[in-house]
Design a protein that fits this description.
The chain is α+β, with helices and mostly antiparallel strands. Strands 13-12-9-10-11-14-18-16 form an 8-stranded antiparallel β-sheet, sandwiched between helices. The protein has a 4-stranded parallel β-sheet with strand order 3-2-1-4. The protein is globular and about 80 Å long. One of its GO terms (molecular function) is ATP binding. InterPro entries: ATP-dep_AA_Ligase, ATP-grasp. It comes from Microbacterium sp. A8/3-1. This is ATP-grasp domain-containing protein.
């Protein structure tokens, strides 16, 4: 295939004299609004130009991915100030390989993450909003149900478009947000562990008792437990592993340690749909409950790998995934607006492996929990099977319902 240099320049070709690229192996990505400005003298060979409807991140990824089907990409560059950072990231993604900085960006920024993974795994429909000047109704008409911050976690800042009004929508800094379609399922699971480069070393599936977003809508908290996937379907377990590995191979560092906390929707058809991934371990004590259920020294092995030690953890394949020896749950009780009238103590929860209670009589909470880390208490439970550990959780919830009074 012909090797080409890809140049991003959304403005008129005249300031940077793009006609110097004529008869050279280059392709120019420009904005449709600049098309008329190419009728100049000297002229740019328009066979070299791809005019794009917008310069949003997903559009640029798609355009360069299409070019890569026909050409070897030698470089991605720009002389446009507003596209400098994006061009650098695209250069590494398509040409030189992902650095630690770009890997961190791809894992943190949901718009870059989804754009890089488009076509690789099932995920919601999405679009960037940096150039969006339309209305809330327009997004709904296009099939987008929610907007969320590109760089937050724990459902913080997520807005369902049919639950806010136009004034609230106008107050959202859209350039920092992404729009997505809504996946109709109450089931969300996680994949947690780490890989050395793209070599998977630890992988464990846990399951929320509700989607993170719905848990914040009038519920008393959220629980995450050893997933029932291990009892139900080896095919689903393998699909989660395969899809997670595909994500790591696409946006993860090739030779550094990649910790991960995946979230996957599981619709009725059983095909995992990608929600997001963090380059970290999951909160709510996930590494500990993996240790309780699987006897897995996740953090010990992670720090050994970070220190460059060979370790004894073998590489995983879809056929050698660990299965739980017992079951574990971590439960977070959310804060609610009001004054704490009464609260239990850790001594009231002898069924729990660990308990942390932060709400004390006299405390005042200014608002309801807006993110999963806004907790009044956290508990960890271990059981011989799912029924055993769920009974302990039910007992603890009953005590909290009776003794944690906030008005």
């Amino acid at each position: 295939m012909t090797a080409v240099n890809v140049v991003l320049f959304r403005h008129s070709p005249r300031p940077v004299e793009l006609w110097h690229l004529n008869h050279r192996d280059a392709l120019i990505l420009s904005h449709e609004s600049s098309r008329a400005r190419y009728n100049s003298d000297p002229a740019v060979d328009e066979s070299m130009v791809r005019f794009l409807e917008d310069f949003e991140v997903p559009t640029l990824f798609r355009a360069i991915r299409d070019i890569a089907q026909k050409h070897t990409i030698r470089s991605v560059s720009t002389l446009g100030e507003e596209d400098m950072a994006t061009a650098g990231l695209l250069e590494e993604f398509f040409v030189t390989g992902v650095s630690e900085y770009v890997a961190g960006t791809l894992f943190k920024d949901k718009l870059f993450m989804r754009s890089a993974l488009e076509g690789q795994i099932p995920q919601p429909e999405f679009r960037g909003l940096e150039e969006f000047t339309g209305t809330r109704e327009q997004l709904l008409a296009e099939g987008f149900n929610l907007v969320k911050p590109r760089r937050s976690a724990g459902a913080q800042g997520v807005h369902l478009l049919n639950e806010i009004d136009d004034e609230e929508f106008a107050a959202i800094p859209l350039g920092d947000y992404i729009a997505e379609s809504f996946i109709q399922t109450p089931r969300m699971v996680t994949g947690d562990g780490f890989a050395v480069g793209h070599d998977m070393r630890h992988f464990y599936v846990h399951e929320y008792d509700a989607t993170v977003l719905s848990s914040l809508d009038g519920r008393d908290g959220i629980a995450i437990s050893t997933s029932k996937v291990y009892d139900e379907s080896s095919d689903l377990l393998k699909a989660l592993f395969d899809s997670s590995l595909r994500v790591l191979e696409t946006i993860g560092s090739r030779d550094r340690v990649n910790p991960f906390h995946f979230e996957w929707f599981i619709p009725e058809d059983g095909v995992p749909v990608f929600c997001e991934v963090g380059r970290r371990f999951g909160g709510l004590g996930i590494p500990r409950i993996a240790r309780y259920a699987f006897d897995a020294p996740v953090l010990e092995d992670y720090w050994a790998a970070m220190a460059g030690e060979a370790g004894t953890t073998p590489s995983l394949t879809r056929e050698t995934l660990a299965h739980p020896r017992r079951r574990a749950i971590c439960y977070a009780r959310y804060r609610v607006k009001g004054e704490v009238i009464s609260a239990p103590t850790s001594e009231d929860f002898n069924m729990a492996e660990n308990s942390w209670i932060w709400a004390k009589p006299g405390d005042e909470f200014a608002e309801n929990a807006g993110v999963v880390t806004d907790n009044a208490a956290i508990f960890e439970f271990i059981g011989t099977d799912a029924g055993d550990v769920e009974a302990k959780l039910a007992q603890a919830r009953s005590i909290l319902d009776e003794r944690l009074v906030i008005r």
